Each structure stands twice: as C-alpha cells, then as structure tokens.
Amino acid sequence: STKDQGKFVPSEKVMQLRNKLMKFMEDYIYPMESEFYKRAHSTSRWTIHPEEEKLKALAKREGLWNLFIPLDSAARARELLFEDMSHGSPGSSEELLLGAGLTNLEYGYLCEIMGRSIWAPQIFNCGPPDTGNMEVLLRYGTKEQQKQWLVPLLEGKIRSGFAMTEPQVASSDATNIECSISRQGDFYVINGTKWWTSGAMDPRGRQIFLHLNINSNR
C-alpha cells in the first residue's frame, strides 16, 4: 500500500512519468543520437537541427515538459503570471508550462533517465543552463521579468546563457569570483572577464546570467 512505501520509493505518478519518458527515449532520442552527434561536430554545430524542434513539440504534447520545476517555484509563478488559472482546467497550456508538480526527489527518478543521453534534457526543456536560469526567475523574478524572460524560456522559444567561468580563478568555487558589479547613479557597472559562457553560441539565446561578486572590496 502507499502508506507502507518508503521515502525513496517512487509514487505511482512518478512511475507513470518514468515509463512514458523511457518509451520516448527509446522511440525518439536514442535513434537520433548519431545524427545529433554528427551535427555537433560539423560546421553547422551552432544551428538548430529541425528534428530537435519536432521532438520538443512532441514532448510537450506527451506532458514531458519542464519536469524540473519544483512545486514551490511553480506555485509562485502561477500566482504572479496566471492569476486566473484557478478558474481554468488543470491541463491548460499555461499549467503544463509549470511542470508536473514534482518534488526534487521525484524529479531525480526522471532526471536519471534523461541523463542517459547528452541530447535528451534540452528536448524536454530540462537542460542547462536554462533550468538554473529559469529557477532564478521562478523564485526571485518580478512579474514583469517573468513575463519578458521566463515565459519564453518555459515555452522553449528562446534559450539562455550562464557566465561564471573566469580566466584567473577556479570558478567552480563561486567564492573565487572576481568579476564585480556596482551601482553608479542610474546605472550598474560590471568589471571583470568571463569566458566559456554556456549557451552563448546558441542562436536562440536572448539573455545571459552573470555570476558576480556584489562586494567588490572582498
């Protein structure tokens, strides 16, 4: 019975999503891996493979979209963006943009399946750096910021970049960050150098998230 299940036993809902995801991987992702690999190692590597957009549309229809979004983040975005959603149907297109209502633990069972192919996460709109950038907007973005930047990301219409790595420091440790930001009058001034910016070359890129040190005197 459900009450006898341990904390780490997937629920029926998660198992249904997991089975659907595994079938999608077997039917569509694995057969395309060699094609995606060739594209990534050709002169067309920064162009969009037409099959990718078709698979993304199919993933949306299958309800395998934005699965990474945590429950609390979805609740905040729902309140800010879709005030009248409570009067609509649970399966509305707006509701589907906010994921499947999973906890981080539940998502882990699905993330493990997606991780079997380097190409899979972006097909389900669950690939970096977009996931982390969307979570920042979900948790801390204003209503205006969410409408301008978050909604197109949730829809998969645009992609984003993430600038953390710096040439002079071990940037995987965020306490090493040297690039700084300071306010000067009505403007913000950024000082520093970033490289290896994830997502910068994607033609769908419309925003870059900078990892900065707000205390330039540190």
TrEMBL record:
Any one GO molecular-function label of the UniProt entry: flavin adenine dinucleotide binding
Domain Acyl-CoA dehydrogenase/oxidase N-terminal: 99-157
Protein origin, superkingdom: Eukaryota
InterPro entries xref list: Acyl-CoA_dehydrogenase (IPR050741), Acyl-CoA_Oxase/DH_mid-dom (IPR006091), Acyl-CoA_Oxase/DH_mid-dom_sf (IPR046373), AcylCoA_DH/ox_N (IPR013786), AcylCoA_DH/ox_N_sf (IPR037069), AcylCoA_DH/oxidase_NM_dom_sf (IPR009100)
Keyword terms of this UniProt record: Oxidoreductase
Residue ranges of every copy of the Acyl-CoA oxidase/dehydrogenase middle domain listed in the record: 161-201
Quaternary structure and partners: Homodimer.
UniProt-recorded name of the protein: Os07g0675000 protein
